[in-house]
């Protein structure tokens, strides 16, 4: 065939031919070296190694008359035969014959010696792909050859990976890193909005992410690989405390659920619980029916199977699950206030707190390997939540009082102090702290400036500095866009910056980034004199990371552009009336902003 080609053949093209009794370039070289009549030798070589079809020999001269090279003819025939054989392999594998895989193994034995021959390699890879169990010897040969390993299908790689955890880990590790980078990138997104934030994408949309789809494809129906990935996620979560690994654990299971991979879903004891919770996350609310289902799963953990609590706690530690549980808790508390009911009298609220407590205790449970539901401090229900409800009642009372005629007013000013039990539990209990943070987000979303100014300074000292975590700061900065006009008040800015963000920005770079993100969007609302001071304060030191420096540069560029061209009047944002209206606090003397 290649005798008619002008290009020199690569030795790899003919690797393995002698094993099958087929002549290769070395045989032709030897023939030409020892012969006396080269043209006759070439003619004989072509006859012996060409297409063994007697009727074809008389037809070939017609191609010569038309100027068609023999190489083109043989190549077209070869391509056609290869494509037909590749299709035939798939048909045999998908058939119902009992010996179908025996036939493929026989074909593999014949073709594998030519696996490095580029023109034959697709056929060999097709056979390997459709064999449910590739002979171990062949797998080792593929694994040992980097080029073969690279081009073989994921179906073959799964069989290699399941007995080579380190190799599988090398393949998965870059994807896990990419996933974390993407999640953290979303938290520091340049977009600042209450409507489009970290929690906006639906669960199904999140599962269409590149990493989740790749991992799902890599796992296929292989339970062993699925278990390996879960172990990687547990280990990384334990090592880093990064809750995004918990999100990936839930997303991966639900991605396999979407594809109806029953081989895995049926053996994962968390499947039905995760499925039910996924529906709640989609609705951003845990209704009574689903709450009962979730409770049934938790109560159904049998003695001797307590280890499943470790996985359930990881799934509940997922920020999307936690977000749903706390939003449902805040909504439940609002209903209790309207019904004059205490938190301890609500079974629905207690169940939400139980799941929240299990999720918040995920790291401790996996670290200690003591698989037992953590006990919620009863005073969270009997003291902290009533204290939080009293803040709401204070706000309602003040609002009503302001609407009364002047002579009937009782309270001259909005309350500023907070109940001791409220601030104490913010500092000492992580479940209480999580609810306190979402309560602040709730009143911010209602544009309740007075309540925000009362509560925000208390968040400087919270359990494990949760108030300075990326998720809370991401949500808070987005929610504050609803109060953008208030940034023109020195008193309001003093609360946001002096008494909260600037208390830790120098020691926590993420706080620095979120403060710059906020100013990047709201700088035109801040008083020029205060903005100048903030810019000096937030100027990053030399050792700061590039993202911080980049944000600061963007801010200074915007401020320069603003000086050159005065800002255009903006349209008012759409009203989000959620039932609690802000009331202006009467003041006698404006509060002096603390030194920055």
Automatic annotation (TrEMBL):
Coiled coil: none annotated. GO terms for cellular component: NELF complex. One of its GO terms (biological process) is negative regulation of transcription elongation by RNA polymerase II. Signal peptide: none annotated. Residues 582-596 have a biased composition (Low complexity). Residues 558-596 are annotated as: Disordered. It comes from the Eukaryota. This is Negative elongation factor complex member B.
């Amino acid at each position: 065939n290649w005798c008619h080609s002008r290009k020199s053949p690569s030795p790899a093209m003919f690797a393995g031919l002698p094993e099958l009794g087929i002549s290769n370039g070395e045989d032709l070289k030897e023939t030409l070296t020892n012969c006396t009549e080269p043209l006759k030798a070439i003619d004989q070589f072509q006859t012996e190694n060409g297409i063994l079809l007697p009727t074809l020999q008389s037809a070939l001269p017609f191609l010569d008359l038309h100027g068609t090279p023999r190489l083109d003819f043989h190549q077209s025939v070869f391509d056609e035969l290869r494509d037909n054989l590749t299709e035939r392999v798939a048909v045999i594998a998908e058939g119902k014959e009992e010996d179908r895989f025996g036939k493929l193994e026989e074909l593999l034995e014949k073709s594998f010696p030519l696996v490095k021959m580029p023109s034959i390699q697709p056929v060999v890879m097709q056979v390997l792909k459709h064999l449910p169990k590739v002979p171990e010897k062949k797998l080792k040969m593929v694994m040992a050859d980097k080029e073969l390993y690279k081009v073989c299908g994921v179906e073959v790689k799964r069989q290699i990976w399941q007995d080579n955890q380190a190799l599988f880990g090398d393949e998965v590790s870059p994807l896990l890193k990419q996933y974390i980078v993407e999640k953290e990138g979303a938290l520091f997104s340049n977009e600042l909005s209450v409507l489009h934030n970290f929690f906006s994408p639906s669960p199904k949309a999140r599962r269409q992410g590149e990493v989740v789809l790749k991992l799902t494809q890599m796992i296929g129906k292989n339970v062993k690989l699925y278990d390996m990935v879960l172990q990687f996620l547990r280990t990384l979560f334990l090592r880093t405390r990064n809750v995004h690994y918990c999100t990936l654990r839930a997303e991966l299971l639900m991605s396999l659920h979407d594809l109806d991979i029953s081989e895995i879903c049926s053996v994962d004891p968390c499947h039905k619980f995760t499925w039910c919770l996924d529906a709640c996350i989609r609705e951003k609310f845990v209704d009574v029916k689903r709450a009962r289902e979730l409770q049934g799963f938790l109560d159904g953990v049998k003695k001797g199977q307590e280890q499943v609590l470790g996985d359930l706690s990881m799934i509940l530690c997922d920020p999307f699950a936690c977000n749903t549980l706390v939003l449902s808790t805040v909504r439940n508390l609002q209903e209790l206030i309207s019904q004059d009911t205490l938190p301890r009298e609500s079974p629905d609220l207690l169940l939400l707190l139980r799941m929240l407590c299990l999720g918040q205790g995920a790291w401790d449970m996996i670290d200690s390997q003591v698989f037992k539901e953590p006990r919620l401090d009863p005073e969270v229900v009997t003291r902290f939540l009533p204290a939080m409800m009293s803040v709401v009642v204070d706000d309602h009372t003040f609002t009503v009082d302001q609407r009364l005629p002047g002579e009937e007013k009782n309270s001259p000013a909005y309350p500023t102090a907070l109940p001791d039990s409220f601030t104490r539990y913010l500092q000492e209990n992580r479940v209480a702290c999580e609810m306190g943070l979402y309560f602040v987000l709730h009143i911010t979303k209602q544009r309740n400036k007075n309540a925000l100014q009362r509560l925000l300074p208390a968040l400087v000292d919270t359990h494990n500095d949760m108030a300075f975590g990326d998720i809370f700061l991401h949500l808070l900065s987005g929610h504050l866009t609803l109060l953008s006009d208030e940034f023109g008040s020195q008193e309001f800015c003093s609360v946001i910056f002096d008494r909260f963000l600037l208390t830790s920005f120098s020691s926590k770079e993420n706080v620095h980034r979120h403060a710059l993100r906020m100013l990047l969007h709201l700088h035109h609302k801040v008083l020029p004199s205060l903005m100048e001071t903030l810019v000096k304060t937030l100027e990053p030191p030399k050792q700061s990371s590039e993202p911080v420096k980049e944000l600061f540069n963007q801010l200074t560029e915007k401020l320069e552009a603003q000086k050159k061209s005065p800002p255009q009047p903006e349209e008012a944002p759409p009203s989000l009336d959620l039932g609690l209206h802000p009331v202006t606090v009467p003041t006698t003397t404006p509060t002096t902003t603390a030194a920055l």
